[in-house]
Amino acid sequence: MKKKYIPYTMIAPYFILYIAFGLFPIIFSLAISFTQWDGIGTATFIGLKNYIRTFTQDKFFYQSLGNTTLLLLVNTPIQISVGLLMATLLKDFFKKTRGAFQLINFLPYITTPVAIGIIFQLMFDWKSGIVNGLLNLFGIDSVYWLGNAWASRGVVVIMEIWKGFGYMMIMFLSGLSTIPDELYESSRIDGAKWRHSFAHITIPLLRPIFTFVIVTSVINGFKLFDEPQLLFSSTSQPIGGPDRAVMTVVMRFYETAFNGFEFGYGSALAYCLFIIIAIVSFFLFKFINRESDMA
Asked: Helix (H, G, I), strand (E, B), or coil: what is residue 44?
């Protein structure tokens, strides 16, 4: 009996912690999404009113969804492209120093969001930022980066690309390590140049990696919160920056639940985001698998 129950006893702490801090909050937030609750008083059941309000009355929800989608559509292709390019260059041209370059490029990904937010606040500060200092050297007037809607979107895009391309690089390097060198040697013997090998060997054989990084990037893009929130945390701008130009769906949820104390409606926003991510991921998988079958 001891031998039978000891393994379950050893793994029990994980399941206890998961149920307490993972499963229970998920179920509880689903339950209160059907209520009107300020977190203190008694929750009042209101059915689907929170979900109806999300899609019919909340203009900020659609604005935040549009902002999130725009940032996602700009960030993801650039991150993947730069990551793939860096991985290929490190594998083919920087073999001796590849370890050092991998570390340098991957460090931003493991840097805490608080540090990233502070770094970019200082870099793009209107008066003392290094970016405006460089522009002034070339006779260009300073730009109010964090006070202009499109300029602030540009800052967030740069910040996300800088943070994420190192992760993409590592993923592509792992995929490149599985491609046999004999294929590249054969192509060189046949007279193929580097760009031909890249297009006809590297890209097709990296299809599983492309599938993984695209889907995970889309999911993480819809969950974007920390960096843009911290970027404007010490400024006088409202949540989401000037004109709420970089307010994401998660930031809208945060504002509703923890600033407005509408926990029922905030939970409904969170589950609406979950539904959107599930639908987008499903069709993305279908599209990628369809392209794979056609190929």
From this structure: strand
